[in-house]
Amino acid sequence: MKNIQHTIILCMLFATPLSCPAVGLNDMFGVWGSVSLKGNFNVISPELEQFKWSVTNQTRTRDDAGNDTRFTENILFSQVGYQINEHASIWLGYVHDWLEPLNLRPFQESRPYQDFVWIQTVNDFKLKFRTRMDERINQRSGSVGYRPRQLVQISHPLPIIEHLTTYTGYEALFYLNNSEFGRQGIAENRVYTGLNYQFTGQLGFSIGYMGQHVIRRRSGNDIFTHNIQTNIHYRF
Fold first, then answer.
1. pLDDT at residue 15 above 80?
2. What distance in Å separates the CA atoms of residue 129 and residue 170, rounded to the nearest whole number?
3. At residue 7, does pLDDT exceed 90?
4. CA 64 to CA 220: how far, in whole Å?
5. pLDDT value of residue 58
6. Cβ neighbour number for residue 91 with a 10 Å cutoff
7. All residues at 6 or more sequence positions from 132 whose CB lies less than 8 Å from its CB, including other chains
8. Is the pTM of the predicted complex or chain greater than 0.85?
9. Which domain holds residue 202?
10. The predicted structure's pLDDT at residue 76
11. Please, are residues 45 and 12 in contact by the beta-carbon 8 Å criterion?
12. In a 3-state reduction of DSSP, which class is residue 102?
């Protein structure tokens, strides 16, 4: 049984998405760096312990301007949630996004969203399922894109180093309508893998890789971005 678990862990650790060469696919490199703060409301009252909050700021860069890496987005996430039971939670969130598209005017996006999260533990494996509904609003034009998205993630502690965990996952993103953000139908596929290390019970750091395939349904080629992801996270 241990050999099987170790094999699965190694597969998770070294899993990477395959970017098959295709006509009309632009390959590029990016970095997503973020800082996250999390907690609950038990400091106000012990009866509010099931109510949770989190805030994340994420900066994104990409080398889509020749050989130069440039700033493309800064995203501020904020959300509050309620822990229904040991497995299920619901969340209401809001994103403010500052975007600088290549060769286009910068604009800002408002994005309310709603989450349902289910976490299941099987032996030492932790499975996470997140269903999210985004409402993307272009503040300049007023265009709205309704984007459901489904994430599946599995994680497992690595036996070689205490407090070190490996994770891998997949997320699919769709549009329910035509808008400035994209046409109706599947919009993006994301496959990722990485490592998380807990320095203390509160402070942790994760680093990983995400292959992001953006499907262009208007003019232009599809985009595949090889993103390095880092996150410093602190739980109060």
1. no
2. 10
3. no
4. 13
5. 98
6. 18
7. 113, 114, 115, 148, 149, 150, 151
8. yes
9. 2-235
10. 98
11. no
12. coil
Residue-wise pLDDT for 46-101, tens only, equals 899 999 999 999 999 999 877 778 999 999 999 999 999 999 999 999 999 999 98
Q: Comparing C-alpha atoms, which of 211, 172, 222 is closest to residue 30?
A: 211
C-beta of residue 165 within 8 angstroms of C-beta of residue 135: no
- Given a contact cutoff of 8 angstroms between Cβ atoms, the answer to whether 94 and 79 are in contact is yes
Residue 13 has pLDDT above 70, yes or no: no
Distances, alpha carbon 173 to alpha carbons 162, 215, 222, in Å = 34, 10, 15
Q: Residue type at 224?
A: F
Reference 9, options 152, 193, 205; nearest CA is 193
On the CB side of 48, CA atoms within 13 Å amount to 11
Helices marked H in the chain: 2-14
CA–CA distance, 193 with 58 (Å, rounded to integer): 18
Per DSSP, 48 falls in state: G
Half-sphere exposure of 55 (CA within 13 A, CB side): 3
3-state secondary structure (DSSP) of residue 29: strand
* CATH number of the domain residue 86 falls in: 2.40.160
Domain count, the chain: 1
55, 58, 65, 80 from 95: Cα distances, Å: 10, 11, 26, 12
Q: How far is CA 107 from CA 63, 103, 192, in A?
A: 19, 12, 28
HSE (CB half, 13 Å, CA atoms) of 154?
11
The answer to whether residues 133 and 113 touch, using CB atoms and an 8 Å cutoff, is: yes
Closest to 224 (Cα-Cα) out of 46, 33, 43, 63:
63
